[in-house]
UniProtKB/TrEMBL annotation:
Residues of the signal peptide: none
Start and end residues of each Gcp-like domain: 52-104
Protein name: tRNA threonylcarbamoyladenosine biosynthesis protein TsaB
GO BP annotations, alphabetical order: tRNA threonylcarbamoyladenosine modification
Residue ranges the record marks as coiled coil: none
InterPro entries in UniProt: ATPase_NBD (IPR043129), Gcp-like_dom (IPR000905), T6A_TsaB (IPR022496)
Domain of life the protein comes from: Bacteria
Pfam families, A to Z: TsaD (PF00814)
Length: 229
């Protein structure tokens, strides 16, 4: 099974392409300013080289409004155009799965928006995919009572650079740096596709760190030609 996977939820745009256990392509770019155009260009290049995929896997966040919206819109459009299934994957789980050469508990955080952010706790072991210990949950100013953990915990994401938060997670924090890999998004999606766990493109929803701000006019807008004379 060939699966195209991509994510634009954070500071990295990632696109990966797999077939079975083989990684055919893995591209990522730090701090993209034009994620939309680069995402389309990379997908076109990969499909031209390896052909259309049998399924699409996309990171649905939590993440920034612009990045998650671009990735999810592209996934839905391509799934419709190619008539292939699509699955949404937690961007935090894909990030944990992108860590190489580490086994143990991993705390992954999204970008912070003020005091609020999303986080997830996973276990990386001998199994091919990270075990979900605590699903993605919202953190507002302080962590739940189960923290800090007494054992060493790898910390990935913006919170890793904040020592005050790191020691709230574990008494032995290990800060790690790695991007979300598109191939890992694809592998997580492949496992769901093989089980027949397909998402409906019409109802597949993003998870934003913060809802988009929508401004509304303060006054009533008069129909054209019926304003004040």
């Amino acid at each position: 099974m060939r699966v195209l996977g991509f994510d634009a939820s954070g500071q990295t745009l990632s696109v990966g392409y797999i077939e079975g256990d083989a990684v055919l392509a893995d591209l990522y770019w730090q701090r993209p300013k034009t994620a939309g155009s680069h995402l389309v260009a990379w997908i076109e290049m990969i499909v031209k080289e390896f052909g259309r995929p049998d399924g699409i896997s996309v990171g649905i966040g939590p993440g920034s409004f612009t990045g998650v919206r671009i990735a999810l819109s592209a996934a839905k459009a391509l799934a419709y155009a190619w008539n292939v299934p699509v699955v949404g994957i937690s961007s935090l789980q894909a990030w944990a799965y992108s860590i190489k050469g580490y086994q143990g508990k991993v705390f992954v955080s999204s970008e912070k928006r003020g005091p609020a952010f999303y986080a997830g706790l996973y276990f990386l072991g001998h199994n091919p995919f990270p075990e979900v210990i605590i699903p993605d949950w919202a953190v507002n100013q302080c962590l739940p009572d189960l923290f800090p953990l007494s054992e060493p915990v790898a910390i990935v994401g913006p919170v890793a650079a904040d020592r005050s938060y790191s020691y709230q997670v574990s008494s032995h924090p290990i800060s790690l740096q790695c991007p979300i890999l598109g191939s890992r998004v694809a592998f997580l999606g492949q496992s769901r596709l093989q089980l027949g766990q397909v998402d409906d493109p019409m109802t597949l929803a993003p998870l934003y760190i913060r809802p988009p701000a929508i401004s509304t006019p303060r006054g009533r807008i008069e129909p054209e030609g019926k304003g004040r004379q």
